[in-house]
Amino acid sequence: MKGLSWRSAGESHGLALVGIVEGMPAGLKLDLEAVDGHLARRQGGYGRGGRMKIESDHMELLSGVKGGETIGSPLAFCLPNRDSVIEQLPVPKNPRPGHADLAGCQKAGHRDPRAVLERASARETAVRVAAAGIARQVLEALSIEVFAHTLSLGGVDADPGNYAKLTPIERHERRAASDFASLDPATEEPMRAAVDAAKEAGDTLGGVFEVLAEGLPPGLGGYASAEERLTGRIGGALFSIPAIKGVEFGLGFPCARVRGSEVQDAILLAPEGASETRWGRFSRATNRAGGLEGGMTNGETLVVRAAMKPIPTLRQGVASVDFETGEEVLCTYQRSDVTSVPAAGVVGEAMVILTLADAVLSKFSSDSVGELLESVATYRRRMAAV
Ligand code: EPS
């Protein structure tokens, strides 16, 4: 089977979260510490709730590796839950609006929202980050870098003027130094104040993150059939993250308000360059399309943003109805995050990685890493003649 696929299982307070990644080429030396590093990023960010103080997510790899290298078979792993108290937790009597609780109970015919919320919980996204921590290493072998950062949180916006000129290394340092995964240091205190004020009020905050992917060859994805279109696949992947309510590429929604002449990216002949590092003879004057045209990568940086709604669990209470008595009540509150936008950026990065790795491994021969590198090098050489 070509391409890369992944699966997850597990409940938020069950024994463990479990993942399987299929399609990784053989012969890739895996850096497992790096995977745990991304899991730690997902747990971080100012405004996270009590659960993240209990957990310290660590991937236990169960299969697919020998001598530290992938062997071409499925990689299975688990992330044990420290807070594995599913059998001791109380059954909430009412469904929480904004979550899967009500429709999930109606769909399956039960009156125990825990039967739904345990799986619908955003805790499942830890598996995606672990799976992407593995898949990312294939992209890195091809010098493709995927990087997410927070653009906006609780109405506080980062100013691109404050980070547009950063080098890739500076960008990593800035993000790591921020409690919000923001590249603009000027947002740090206003974002903190916004989170503190929301916490005080028993309320929550949403925001927007951006994912960039650099070094992509042109022609990933396809235009010939609906399901090949990478725009839809990346959009769908981001919309599969709980609480994501909007996705935009490049110029995004504002492109609907301007003329066609303002959304194109003129094709230019690139200055003569080393054909080992360039993809083809062309370059673009701008990148308003965000790196995708006709459902395919066009060789420019992929730029995609996702809007996250504020987490719907509110300490101040939200109106619901008791399943047994039919009384109008306030939802049972246990604990939750004030915001998890910085964590959602890590998950968004993971979903883009999983989708791009699938596109790369679908396009190129990839039984082994060596075969993949050769196949990509041939593609690069051929492209120089187009
Ligand atoms: C999460 C774990 C959960 C929540 C959060 C994300 O832990 P608990 O339910 O034990 O407090 O902190 O879940 C949600 C936002 C949600 O909608 O369920 C995690 O690991 O990210």
Can you tell me about this structure?
The protein has 386 residues and is α+β, with helices and mostly antiparallel strands. The protein has a single domain, classed as Chorismate synthase AroC (Chorismate synthase, AroC fold). It is 31% helix and 19% strand. The chain has ten helices and 17 strands. It has helices at 32-43, 51-54, 101-108, 113-120, 125-141, 168-177, 188-200, 230-239, 341-363, 369-383, and strands at residues 5-9, 16-22, 60-61, 65-66, 69-70, 75-80, 145-153, 156-157, 207-214, 244-249, 267-269, 282-284, 292-293, 296-297, 302-308, 319-321, 328-330. The strands form six sheets. It has a five-stranded antiparallel sheet. A hairpin with a 2-residue loop joins β13 (292-293) and β14. The longest helix is centred in the last third of the chain and has 23 residues, at 341-363. The chain is globular and about 75 Å long. The two termini are 30 Å apart. 39% of the residues are buried. The mean pLDDT is 96. The chain binds ligand EPS.
The CATH topology name reads: Chorismate synthase, AroC fold
Shape: globular
What would the average pLDDT be, to the nearest integer? 96
Terminus-to-terminus distance: 30 Å
Structural features:
Chorismate synthase, AroC fold; alpha+beta; five-stranded antiparallel sheet; four-stranded antiparallel sheet; 386 residues; binds ligand EPS; 31% helix; single chain
Question: What is the compact description of this entry?
Answer:
Helices cover 31% and strands 19% of the residues. By secondary structure, the protein is of the alpha+beta class.
